[in-house]
Amino acid sequence: MTSLHDLLFSDLENILVADGLRPIHAQSLWRAIHRQSASNLADHPTFLPPLARWVKSELLPGNRFFLEAPLTITDTASSDGFTRKLLLQLADGQTVETVLMAYVGRSTACVSTQVGCAMGCVFCATGQMGFKRHLRSAEIVAQVLKVEHILRSQNSTSLRNLVLMGMGEPLHNYDAVLKALEILTDHRGIGLTPSRITISTVGVVPGILRLAEDPHPYNLAVSLHSADPQERANLVPASRRWPLPDLINACQTYATRTKRRIFFEWTLIAGVNDSPKHAEAVATLLSGLPAHVNLIPLNPTNGFTGSATATPAAREFQRVLHQAKLPSTIRQRRGIDVAAGCGQLRTLHEKIPLPQSKASASPNLLSNPPLPSR
Ligand code: SF4
């Protein structure tokens, strides 16, 4: 069985035409799936009779196609009112996290690309749980549609930004991720703007080099955390496979080919990587690259004993970067009370039995609380 959310528009059109329908039916079905986030296509009011008949026969249980419908297990709003975190159950019972950050006139979805993660970053709850499996394109698309549905039900403006910084390493699941983005940027559907999409990586060099050749202007964010190879390997074990010099060379190639600035993520861990010397080292490492550094005080997790850098030390770090003419931003730790660091919510719920999984389960079985007032 194939998920309809896994299909590009051209795939869907080819299938329908091969089944004797017309291209206009593909447009109508695509709109229902991607613009209206329809969870039930039977008796859809805009479908012409041939399409309605096709849907009724092809989407029967056990037939060729199904509709991706992740079940909302928990939906929690942070006390600051800006962050809403969903734990979604997929068709095989696995769970992933999706986050919506909603500000006035600006909203961002953060989605997962894998169940668990193989990269093993020591301070990350997802890294601590290990790798379970890759997500299919449809499962990435469905997370975004879920968030868009929430925004629409709140009469908010539609989704503006997308970051692939949830559970998993996006460039370790390259083909499914890039296909999902092609579906999500299709103007006949949700139509996200490619330049408002950020792909985050821990430094998977072959993936960065492939992305450098991609025609879409997606943004790249590289999790750096240290400019010293040994220290970085202690925090990010995957860097033993793709050492710092190779990573910086790949970033140079990416920047030259795409003419785009690269974001570097730096988790600030007290007494580990937050001294002025660390700041000088990263400024030296990134000199010559069009770079912007995001400084993020550590989100505490049970499996890591480190603590977040205090604000004065974070400001001093930033001052050193500024002096070296390296632009940076100190990011606030939004939604920490809803376990907004990736993997934390799934870890919290791992011991709680989840409902029976069904690919066709209604996404509205559990009610969604309203977005808190801003
Ligand atoms: S920080 Fe990202 S790449 Fe590292 S373990 Fe966590 S999810 Fe994986």
Would you give an account of this structure?
This protein has twelve helices and 14 strands. Residues 351-374 have low confidence and may be disordered. It is an alpha/beta fold and 374 residues long. The strands form three sheets. Strands 3-4-5-6-9-10-11-12-13-14 form a ten-stranded mixed sheet, covered by helices on one side. A two-stranded parallel sheet has the order 1-2. Strands 7-8 form a two-stranded antiparallel sheet. Iron/sulfur cluster (SF4) binds at residues 117, 119-121, 124, 126-127, 167-169, 202, 342.
Q: Gap between N and C termini, in Å?
A: 42 Å
> What's the quaternary structure here?
single chain
Bound molecules: iron/sulfur cluster
- Helix- and strand-based class? alpha/beta
Counting DSSP E segments of at least 2 residues, the number of strands comes to 14
- Uncertain ranges: 351-374
Report the major sheet: 10 strands, mixed
Mean pLDDT across residues:
88
Count of DSSP-assigned helices: 12
Order of helices and strands: EHHHEEEEEEHEHEHEHEHHEHEHEH
Strand content: 15-25%
| Radius of gyration based on Cα positions | 21 Å
Query: What characteristic shape results from the CA principal axes?
Result: elongated
| Helicity level | 25-40%
For the largest sheet, list the strands in their spatial order: 3-4-5-6-9-10-11-12-13-14
Blueprint (SSEs and pairs):
Layout: E1 2-3, H1 9-18, H2 23-34, H3 49-58, E2 65-66, E3 71-77, E4 83-89, E5 95-103, E6 106-110, E7 114-116, H4 125-129, E8 131-134, H5 137-153, E9 161-164, H6 174-184, E10 197-201, H7 205-213, E11 219-223, H8 229-235, H9 244-258, E12 262-268, H10 276-286, E13 291-297, H11 311-323, E14 328-330, H12 344-349
Helix pairs in contact: 1-2, 5-6, 7-9, 10-11
